[in-house]
Design a protein that fits this description.
Two copies of one chain form a homodimer.
Chain A: E1 2-6, H1 11-22, E2 27-31, H2 39-44, E3 52-55, E4 58-61, H3 63-73, H4 84-118, H5 126-147, H6 160-174, H7 184-194, H8 200-203
Parallel strand pairs in A: 1-2
Antiparallel strand pairs in A: 1-3, 3-4
Helix pairs in contact in A: 1-3, 1-6, 4-5, 4-6, 5-7
Chain lengths: 221, 221
């Protein structure tokens, strides 16, 4: 049995969940209050972060190495293109979303509004929220620019890059922080990825104290 | 011709330099004052970071995707093991050093002491320096624990994980921030990697205003 220790709105956990679901690998989800630094959990992952995946007799951390492992071990349906140049582009965009988008946007919006409350760190810092709201516009424009040239973010086939981006955007959409009016191209891309069966579980998530907006799970948003 | 836009003490740039040198790929180095946000440079890399690598007709950013590309395109000598489980472990440790070690140690020591001065951001914050000096001990102990079970960090063959770790440690060693007395095992590992021909160019680096200590380039430190 595959078991994932996660928190529902973490984009890094969502990326792993989406990739597992796309590969039709069933997973048991265990919510992990990682900020409480439970010794059992720290034994599983000395970095003290989620996701942690138990699979094939291994206990794995770090979402991108986990996704690369799943892709190598369960190559169908493919989420990485065959040639090195195109694979580079997928990995570059995964890093773009997990590093830059995460730092510019996710940490300023989701972590300020949700994580701080859940972990008892206090109220959102409005300067950070403002910075995040400004930065997401730049990122949506960048996505629109990419999608004007390609069917999916990294090329003409769906890839890990799309799931990495969709993991961040879906978490932000849960707290109504994505302005879907900014780009029809990006909205169309999200509608396509949102309607995949792999997305269903993510759309069914609910976090106590943070009810999702009505459009969150609506495929026709 | 391969061209790398870099700064000498950046561990991410060093990782790419080490991997290129290990593969015997010649590279022209161009120092890039990325913090001045030169429009030409931002055109090359909208994330505004180094390293940026021009190679095979592509302009690439993000050090790990770059290294994966080089590994796929120039597989000899191998810096990735053949099976998915071992490859996962390499990628996990690359992330460990580039995310956790970087955040806990490199940004608290190197960026406080060197980058702030070079970029005109002011003086080191002594709380950060103290936190970095404390954290590096934990990381050296973790490396010693890994190296007690394996010849190299991720297994019995040298890999990207070793170059990622050595890139961070060599930059910190340049400012005398590594206590080599803490673990003979880690010191032996660094002596082995430091004596490889691929390391020569990194040991010859000098940064104006920051002369390296005598032991920095000494193979018998």
């Amino acid at each position: 049995m595959i078991r994932l220790f996660h928190v529902p709105l973490s984009p890094f956990c969502r990326k792993v969940r989406l990739v597992l679901a796309e590969k039709k690998l069933e997973v048991e989800l265990v919510e992990e209050r990682y900020w409480e630094k439970d010794p059992d959990f720290l034994r599983r992952n000395p970095a003290g972060k989620v996701p942690v995946l138990r699979m094939d007799g291994m206990t794995m951390s770090e979402s991108t190495p986990i996704c690369e492992y799943i892709e190598e071990k369960y190559p169908e349906p493919a989420l990485m293109p065959p040639n090195p140049e195109a694979r580079y582009e997928v990995r570059r965009l995964v890093s773009w979303f997990d590093d830059k988008f995460h730092q510019d946007v996710t940490s300023n919006l989701l972590y300020e509004r949700v994580n701080k409350k859940i972990t008892g760190e206090g109220y959102p810092d409005s300067r950070n929220v403002k910075a995040g709201a400004k930065a997401i516009r730049f990122h949506i424009d960048y996505m629109a620019w990419l999608l004007d040239q390609r069917r999916w973010l990294a090329g003409d086939a769906i890839s890990l890059a799309d799931f990495s981006a969709a993991a961040h955007l879906s978490s932000l959409d849960y707290i109504s922080d994505v302005d879907w009016h900014r780009s029809q191209t990006v909205k169309d891309w999200y509608a396509k990825i949102k309607s995949r069966p792999a997305f269903r579980a993510v759309l069914a998530d609910t976090v106590p104290g943070f009810p999702p907006p009505a459009h969150y799970a609506d495929l026709d948003f």
